[in-house]
Amino acid sequence: MTLRDREWLDDALAAFDLLYFEGALAEVPVRIVWHTYRPAVTYTCGDYLEGRIRINRRLSSLVVPDYVVLGTVYHECLHAVVGMDHDISFELAEGRYVHRTKAALWEAYHLDAVMRPGGPPCNTPP
C-alpha cells in the first residue's frame, strides 16, 4: 500500500514536467497540494490558481487508481501552462495523457461513489 502524500504529488508533478511539459512547469513555478473541499463542491477533482494546484483529498483513496489521480494532476498542469480555457487546443493537449481514455472510463463509472459524502476513506496524512 502506498501512502499518497505530498511527496507523491511532488513526484508526479516532476515526472509530468519532464514527460509532457519540457520544463515549463518549473518555470511557472507550480506548487501542488492535497485539498479538502467543502461539501458543496465535493465533486471538484482539482483546481489551479496562481501557481497552485489543489487535488481533492478524496482522490487519495486507494480505490482510485493512480492513473485517475495522475490524470487530474495532468489536467491541472495544463491549466498552469496552456491557460484556463477548455478550447480545442486544451482538449488536444489533454489527449496526450497516456491513460486519458482509461481514466475517463473509470471516472464515468466510479467517481460519483468516491466523491460523495461517506465515500471510501482518504489515504493521505491529515
List the helices and strands and how they pair.
Blueprint: H1 6-19, H2 24-27, E1 31-35, E2 46-49, E3 52-56, H3 66-82, H4 88-94, H5 100-115
Parallel strand pairs: 1-3
Antiparallel strand pairs: 2-3
Helix pairs in contact: 1-3, 3-4
Total beta-strand segments = 3
Question: What is the chain-wise order of helices and strands?
Answer: HHEEEHHH
Estimated helix fraction:
40-55%
Low-confidence stretches are none
Oligomer: single chain
The assigned structural class equals: mainly alpha
Distance between the termini: 17 Å
Estimate the mean pLDDT confidence: 88
Please give the count of helices: 5
User: What is the radius of gyration computed over CA atoms, rounded to a whole number of angstroms?
Assistant: 14 Å
Going across the major beta sheet, what is the strand order? 1-3-2
User: What kind of sheet is the major sheet?
Assistant: 3 strands, mixed
Number of domains: 1
- The shape, in one word, is globular
Fraction in beta strands: 5-15%
Using the coordinates above, name the CATH class: Alpha Beta
CATH homology superfamily: Metalloproteases ("zincins"), catalytic domain
Q: Kindly report the CATH topology.
A: Zincin-like
Please identify, by name, the CATH architecture. Answer: 2-Layer Sandwich
